[in-house]
Amino acid sequence: MKIILDAMGGDLAPKATVLGAVEAVKELGAQVVLVGRGDLILAELQRVGYSTLPTGIEILDAPDVVDMHDAPETVVKQRKDSSMIVGLRALAEGQGDAFISAGSTGALLTAATLIVKRIRGIRRAALSPTIPCQGGQFVLIDCGANAECTPEFLLQFAFMGSFYAKKFLEIRKPRVALLNNGVEDSKGTDLQKQTYPLLQQADRDGHIHFIGNIEAREVMTGGCDVLVTDGFSGNVFLKCVEGTAKFFSGELKSIFTSSLGSKIGALLCMKGVNGLKKKMDYRETGGTLFLGISKPVIKAHGSSDERAVFCAIRQAMQAVTSGVTNEIAANIDAMRAVKE
Amino acid sequence: MKIILDAMGGDLAPKATVLGAVEAVKELGAQVVLVGRGDLILAELQRVGYSTLPTGIEILDAPDVVDMHDAPETVVKQRKDSSMIVGLRALAEGQGDAFISAGSTGALLTAATLIVKRIRGIRRAALSPTIPCQGGQFVLIDCGANAECTPEFLLQFAFMGSFYAKKFLEIRKPRVALLNNGVEDSKGTDLQKQTYPLLQQADRDGHIHFIGNIEAREVMTGGCDVLVTDGFSGNVFLKCVEGTAKFFSGELKSIFTSSLGSKIGALLCMKGVNGLKKKMDYRETGGTLFLGISKPVIKAHGSSDERAVFCAIRQAMQAVTSGVTNEIAANIDAMRAVKE
Questions:
Q1: Residues of A in contact with B190 (CB under 8 A)
Q2: Dihedral class, residue A36 (left if φ above 0, else alpha if ψ from -120 to 50, else beta)
Q3: With an 8 Å Cβ cutoff, are A217 and B254 in contact?
Q4: Do A272 and B255 touch (CB under 8 A)?
Q5: Quick check: A188 and B244 CB within 8 A?
Q6: Euclidean distance between the first and final Cα of chain B, in Å?
Q7: Which of A107, B265, B277, B311 has CA atoms 20 to 30 A from the CA of B197?
Q8: Contact call for residues B216 and B237 (beta carbons, < 8 A)
Q9: B339: DSSP letter
């Protein structure tokens, strides 16, 4: 299996991408194609002691880089020699099995849609991170790719999220819920009201296990395995979890350092605190799969370090072997909203 | 000043409401009108040693109670003898200065709008809780009263939230921000895109201090004083903070109780942990003011205990003396979206 990696994407590239790739080749037996400026990639490899290309690593030269300020819709044309675009083209042409980039999310989504294409019948690709919650984790779909959605988009998100939870979280019958401002089926805006019966029907037809509307509070306490929502609310949700977690970490830090006694107290609790830190660490997940694209494309966190890149490669390999893309394609007929 | 209190609203009524009122009369010099079943209210008073009505407490008899399952739009007609409706009518007729209920939010908002009425020119009343964040707290408006909003609603929320932050949080120049999925002014759905220039104009005209779009993460780390959003996203935001806080409390609890060492550690950090608990305790705020109604109406938390009722009465008194309602009414001309 061959993973194509944008060696230039992300705040810590190319150092983090090159080192993460080397580690993945060693530990996971991955084959990695590093896309980017060959001279910079070779220099990073030399810095860690490789005078020639290590086995399992290839370089695909791309002189340009997508900038965070590039408008997503312009990169395919105006940055055609960038590591992101060259890498996506290599994926589309079958030079590898999956593509990873820590570059601009918007640019990656737009370019993946144009170059690698969506699975036939899928209206929109979605961003679907897994988020820790009480008792485990859940899949959030969509978390920002599509600010405005139709009920049919959400129906497709429900299917794709459910397949993903089965394959990646190993949940036999994922509980799919619709994010809403109350649990009654009359709640929400027109979008939620119209999506609800579609999800009910998909449940009756045996395609997904729809448990109804859910409020954000119950999600974090483990109320569902797949949280379906439009990209705007999903983005608010994800960033609110991150912000609240950051707020709590800050508060805890000041509690633990406020006096000599509390410093000793902190030492005594260190093991548990580190466990929680690890649970909340985005690096361990790797990245976020774009569900709905015809081949696995993964967005790694913009500030990915070597460990995060390693985990993203592991996740990409899992995406390939899981066959989640094929499962979506095979079920596409059930994922259409019947027109009234 | 006279505060009208729905003695029957909330999970712990009438015990919590009666005891909270008795405490507020003692501590704050409030006058409280308890609305509800006289026999039950008197029984609660007797239980704590009052054989006659204490000074400062009145009873307004209402034989019926609004049920949590009543459809909001039906309560004014079908529950006209309920404590909520009788209380709101008393407020409208000038028998008191503010009304508090821990009953159904939807019913209270609908009934307050129909009976007490909105301030002339205000399109929608909004729910505006204050939420703790790094370095202090901020006002969230709207958090669920209006799932679907127009840009003009949001413009009015920005004004009302700003006045509220000035009066209640004592911030001279509150930083008003629009909740969005990115900071660029092109971000969001049509609602955010159309609201942005209205808020910019209000800033240029010197009415509010608009600092632009904000992502949910930055809100929790203290990025704004007033967070403007539609009721759907606001509800997701609020409940996500609550859920994440609950998740963290659970994690901390298991860290602190996992071993003898960590138990000792927890004891050494107890002071700080209790401080954080108090900061996150909704009871200390009291309730949520409905901004835009012509007289102060406060929704107390459904599970309000005696302390929460006491704080809600304190908040109601503050709402009356602050003159926030008058300030909204005086500025209504600046709060209209100019039609293109």
A1: 148
A2: left
A3: no
A4: yes
A5: no
A6: 45
A7: A107
A8: yes
A9: P
Contact between B216 and A231 using a beta-carbon 8 Å cutoff: no
- Interface test with chain B among A186, A257, A269, by most B beta carbons within 10 Å: A269
- Rounded to the nearest angstrom, the minimum Cα separation between A156 and chain B is 20
Q: Do B179 and A236 touch (CB under 8 A)?
A: yes
Tens of pLDDT, residues B167-209: 999 999 999 999 999 888 888 999 999 999 999 999 999 999 9
pLDDT surpasses 50 at A78: yes
Helical spans, DSSP H, in chain B: 15-28, 38-47, 75-78, 83-92, 105-115, 151-168, 190-204, 216-220, 231-256, 260-268, 270-280, 306-322, 324-330
Tell me the nearest-neighbour CA distance from A152 into chain B, angstroms.
18
Q: Both tokens of residue B248?
A: 């963290």
Q: Given pLDDT bands bounded at 50, 70 and 90, which one contains residue B32? A: very high
Using DSSP, how many helices (H) and how many strands (E) does chain A show? 13, 12
Give the separation between CA B203 and CA B301, rounded to whole angstroms.
34
* Chain A residues within 8 A of B144 when measuring between CB atoms: 181
How far apart (Å, rounded) are the C-alpha atoms in residues A56 and A93? 20
What's residue B340's pLDDT? Answer: 42
Helices B270-280 and B260-268, axial angle in degrees (round to 10): 70
Q: Average of pLDDT values for B226-233? A: 97
Residue with tokens 């926030």: B324
Note the pLDDT tens digit of each residue in A84-127: 999 999 999 999 999 999 999 889 999 999 999 999 999 999 99
Strand-pairing partners, residue A141, are A228
Q: Residue B293 CA to chain centroid, in angstroms?
A: 13
Contact A221/B246, CB-based, under 8 Å?
A: yes
Q: Do A236 and B240 touch (CB under 8 A)?
A: yes
Q: How many CB atoms lie within 10 A of CB B150?
A: 16
pLDDT for B56 equals: 95
Distances (CA, A) of B305 to A56, A307, B8, B9, B311: 65, 48, 13, 11, 10
Per the CB < 8 A criterion, the answer to whether B3 and B316 are in contact is: yes
Q: What is the pTM of this model?
A: 0.90
pLDDT in tens, B85-137: 999 999 999 999 999 999 998 899 999 999 999 999 999 999 999 999 998 99
Contact across the interface for B268 and A264, Cβ inside 8 Å: yes
Sheet of strand A209-214, all strands in order from the earlier edge strand to the far edge: A130-133, A136-141, A226-228, A175-179, A209-214
What average pLDDT does this structure show over A184-203? Answer: 94
CA distance A72 to chain B (A): 13
pLDDT: which is higher, A155 or A250? A155
Measured between beta carbons, the chain A residues lying within 8 angstroms of B183 are: none
> Does the beta-carbon distance from A265 to B264 stay under 8 Å?
yes
Q: Which of B269, B273, B280, B303 to mutate to test the interface with A (most CBs of A within 10 A)?
A: B269
Q: What's the pLDDT band for A194 if we cut at 50, 70, 90? A: very high
Going by C-alpha positions, the residue among A95, A91, A148, A97 that lies closest to residue A123 is A148
Measured in angstroms, the CA of A51 and the nearest CA of chain B are apart by: 43
Size of interface A-B (CB pairs under 8 A): 173
Is the CB of B217 less than 8 angstroms away from the CB of A240?
yes
Distances in Å between the Cα of B93 and the Cα atoms of B67, B110, B117 are: 24, 18, 12
Instruction: Return the higher-pLDDT residue of A284 and B49.
Output: B49
